[in-house]
Amino acid sequence: MSDMIDMYRDLKEHRREMREALGVDCPKCRIKQPKRTPTILLPQQRCKVDGYRDPRPETLVSEWLKTP
Fold it and tell me: Is the pTM of this model over 0.90?
């Protein structure tokens, strides 16, 4: 049981690090809902609020994963 907890904790930490390194605020969220905190998008990720897709290539994620 604790192995699963540790695995999910590590996955959550990995996602947080990726969002800090590669994430950008959704520009449409700032326009449509200025009082709301904008969605943080990774390359090629779609915003669930307004449907905007980040145009950056997904190779940025794979390059980030390869760096030590």
Answer: no
